[in-house]
Amino acid sequence: MSFSILASGAVGASATPAWAMLAYLVSGVFFILALRGLSSPATSQTGNRNGMIGMGIAVATTLITHEIANIIEILIAVGIGGAIGVVIARRIAMTAMPELVAGFHSLVGLAAVVVGFGAWLDPESFGIVDAAGQILSVSRVELGLGIAIGAITFSGSIIAFLKLSGRMSGSPIMLPGRHVINLGTLVAILALIGLYTVSPDGGAGEGWMIIAIAVLAFIIGFLLIIPIGGADMPVVVSMLNSYSGWAAAAMGFTLGNSAMIITGALVGSSGAILSYIMCRAMNRSFISVIAGGFGAAPEAGGAGGAREQRPYKQGSAEDAAYMLEQAEKVIIIPGYGMAVAQAQHALREMGDKLKEKGVEVKYAIHPVAGRMPGHMNVLLAEASVPYDEVFELEDINSEFAQCDVAFIIGANDVVNPAAKTDKSSPIYGMPVFDVEKAKQVFFIKRSMGGVGYAGVDNDVFYMNQTVMLLADAKKMVEEIVKSLD
Amino acid sequence: MDFIAILSIFVLACFVGYYVVWSVTPALHTPLMAVTNAISSVIIVGALIAAAEANSPAAKYLGLFGVVLASINIFGGFAVTQRMLAMYKKKGK
Predict the structure, then answer these.
(1) A267 contact residues in B (CB cutoff 8 A)
(2) What does the pLDDT read at residue A5?
(3) Partners of residue A468 on adjacent β-strands
(4) Active site residue A352
(5) Global confidence as pTM
(6) Which chain A residue has the Cα nearest residue B35?
(7) Residues of chain A with pLDDT under 50
(8) What is the pLDDT of residue B38?
(9) Given this model, what pLDDT does residue A15 score?
(10) Among A43, A44, A160, A453, which one is least packed by beta carbons within 10 Å?
(11) What per-residue confidence (pLDDT) applies to A9?
(12) Out of A395, A404, A413, A485, which one is annotated catalytic?
């Protein structure tokens, strides 16, 4: 590929006027400001508004600079989509946020595929043809990549959505030889993109290549996500977030549109950083998460039966209430179980009652608690827990030694001391809360039978100072609240 | 715009993204995902071009379909982010 091909502008297409290029740049800057606003809850709403302004500028600029013959149809399309979006956004329960985000990712992916095909069918409008009416080589690479990433994002997010919403089992589905199949498919996609780029006729005659790229990418998105277990979903959702950004960026390259490129780069980095944070919080490599299968083995090996029965203490809501009101400082550790039981409102009530009695109450959140980054923070915010009472792992972990009660609700692996002591444990090296340093531990769990996602026993259950509260999290907390009166 | 100019914007924007995202407080990671979702639907620009200028009917209908998909995301994404952010309150309010 010669440099002149790279540098040459489109021939025969309506060139974008300079003011429009500037407008797209301004739109991109507003998107940067939107993310910047999220550095603190105080500035976050302004940030979100900046995002809306940026989007408004981008859409308006596009509509003004193109000859629109069918504005009515376009407005109807926007109206339909907007109405669906707003209704979903209003109705969705906060506990369902992970599957909503996964579902939205799938739409971005599909939109990228659709735009890619649109550009391929009508390259003149997209300004990506050379003097001979052929799609530019560089644009073919961008189109191929955009369609492939979009398709992977689409099918991968659909699987993530099905797993997160419980419509599909969260346990890993392992195909024999899946690594070979995946790698083979990936190589085939790249080979097809290469072939498409160098093919003499990049237009309609080579349609099968573009279609094959899309189909293979749909398949690999599906294959990549099915072997990944439910609790690894925070990494998957972040990763798909990243992909949706790269898909938008690829389309931005095709269109030479700075707003799309800036957004794509922002979203792509954002998802990648979140994936990294999640992996670090589990002490797992990104590769091992993506390879999948975590948490699948114990069922087959019959580990449940081999687990020794050790003595533990079981308590009632009254016991817990009594100890909690005597305490000076209580740290509450919520996990996915709290989300499942919808216990956040009852929990906040309990916190309020304790504060009235002069107890210091803090909430401690592990980065991988829940099914997506920040999941627990949103649920606590929904229950009107002030955000300055909610702390991250590294900020609060030193305080367990001075706390009277550690109150664990629906979490398990994130408080397992085996992560610090047992080198053979699958969660060894994962940063965990030092709950064993607390004077008293209350552990809400549905039954003693289940173990955490990692499938390992937890020494915290059997400690001298631990009292197990075996019940549905919401019911148990409600009873504690009653006993506190 | 030529390819090198576009690539420059892309590379610099990746760095901006890196620093901006690390400065996002972990408490807001869920709204971050929701809002990145909304803004990545700026891909609607491509869908609009396909829908509006179509020299091919197939491209036009694909474009309109893309506009619907992206609009769900834009309106839904910003609205749900707004709903979440409105819940974050400080003590004593």
Answers:
(1) 17, 36-37, 39-40
(2) 38
(3) A314, A443
(4) no
(5) 0.88
(6) A48
(7) 1-14, 297-306
(8) 95
(9) 66
(10) A43
(11) 41
(12) A413
Q: What is the pLDDT of residue A8?
A: 37
CA of B8, closest CA in chain A: separation in Å?
10
Helices B44-52, A41-65: crossing angle, 10 deg rounding: 20
B71·A80 Cβ contact <8 A: yes
Residues 6+ apart with CB under 8 A from B88: A41, A44, A381, A387, B27, B28
pLDDT of residue A204: 52
pLDDT of residue A331: 96
**Rounded distance between C-alpha atoms, residue A433 and residue A415, angstroms:** 5
A46 contacts chain B (CB < 8 A):
no
Bridge pairing between strands A390-392 and A405-409: unpaired
Residue A280, min C-alpha distance to chain B (Å): 14
Q: Could you tell me the two tokens for A357?
A: 């009695």
DSSP 3-state of B88: coil
The span from the first CA to the last CA of chain A, in angstroms, equals 77
**C-alpha to C-alpha distances, A427 to A35, A123, A388, nearest whole angstrom:** 33, 51, 30
CA distance B61 to chain A (A): 9
- Report yes or no: A140 at the B interface, CB cutoff 8 Å: no
By the CB < 8 Å criterion, does A86 face chain B? yes
